[in-house]
Write a structure and sequence with these properties.
Blueprint lengths: L1 H27 L31 E2 L3 E4 L5 E2 L4 E7 L6 E10 L8 E3 L5 E6 L2 E6 L8 E7 L8 E10 L9 E11 L1 H8 L4 E5 L4 E7 L6 E6 L5 E7 L4 E6 L7 E8 L4 E8 L1
Parallel strand pairs: 1-11, 3-11
Antiparallel strand pairs: 2-4, 4-9, 5-8, 5-10, 6-9, 7-8, 10-11, 12-13, 13-16, 14-15, 14-17, 17-18
């Protein structure tokens, strides 16, 4: 009898332990998800884990709604953008995680701001993530900020995972869904970066304008010196402006601020210039 009682006690304790452990495990990530659970490419030929690493079932494509404050879903370096994520549904408790990766090599880009108390940030594998916080699990929509990197990174994809739970404090009966959202670098910022090293300086002793920094593929160009009234006071066409070019002006112009325009068939660069 004593052996039977002991065996029954062990079984009861074991069942109780595993039940408590399951409930405790579910509670563990209510305050914030662990990093690297979006299912995004890991940069090594595989993929990150998912919420299904802890919750039962398999992930499926979600009908999430993502909004991005950049015009036409474009971004410029260093700027901060507001994003919202709506996962839909009406489950008791919910969570999410998002990571931003550049399309060229799946490297992590940008950083996150948790603008309220309903989100939290985390890092892992040289990537920045944003996800739910404990106070944000009772909702299906979140708002937060993404800060673009210091320089353009081309096309970027946001990888989103959502966990819609039934609130039974266990890992069963939950629904994990994934989606992606894409943005592109604005054309204006791409052109700005391309021509960032171009300089134009007036050499008074020679009455020349020294132009440097153009790439070899710019080719034939039209140069224009424009006064502040918008009048072109000098114009010259040249066959090659790669690397550097000294433009000797035909006239001595009044001291003041002018605009220098350098254009080819498809691109145009304008700089301010002080002539004295």
């Amino acid at each position: 009898m004593n052996k039977k009682a002991t065996l029954v006690g062990i079984i009861v304790l074991s069942v109780g332990f595993f039940s408590w452990n399951s409930m405790n495990f579910d509670k563990k990530f209510s305050s914030a998800p662990p990093a690297s659970k979006t299912g995004a490419p890991d940069g090594m030929g595989g993929n990150e884990g998912l919420c299904t690493d802890c919750h039962s079932g398999s992930a499926s494509a979600g009908s999430h709604t993502v909004t991005f404050s950049g015009s036409n879903n474009t971004y410029e370096p260093v700027q901060t953008y507001t994003m919202t994520l709506d996962i839909g549904g009406a489950n008791a408790k919910n969570g999410f995680q998002v990571v931003a990766l550049r399309d060229s090599d799946n490297g992590g880009v940008g950083s996150w701001n948790a603008t309220g108390g309903d989100e939290s940030t985390m890092t892992g594998s040289s990537r920045n993530y944003i996800g739910h916080s404990a106070s944000g699990t009772g909702q299906t929509m979140w708002s937060f900020e993404w800060v673009a990197p210091a320089q353009g990174e081309g096309d970027i994809t946001f990888y989103v995972v959502a966990n819609e739970t039934n609130g039974n404090l266990a890992t069963s009966g939950d629904v994990v869904t994934t989606s992606t959202f894409n943005i592109t670098q604005s054309t204006a910022s791409i052109e700005e970066e391309k021509f960032a090293d171009i300089n134009m300086n007036y050499l008074g002793s020679d009455n020349e304008i020294m132009i440097t920094g153009f790439q070899a593929d710019f080719g034939k160009a039209t140069l224009e010196l424009i006064d502040l009234s918008g009048k072109t006071v000098e114009r010259k066409r040249i066959n090659d402006i790669s690397d550097s070019y000294n433009w000797r002006l035909r006239k001595n112009h009044n001291s003041g601020i002018y605009l220098i325009s350098v254009r080819n068939d498809s691109e145009k660069v304008v700089r301010k210039l002080f002539v004295q």
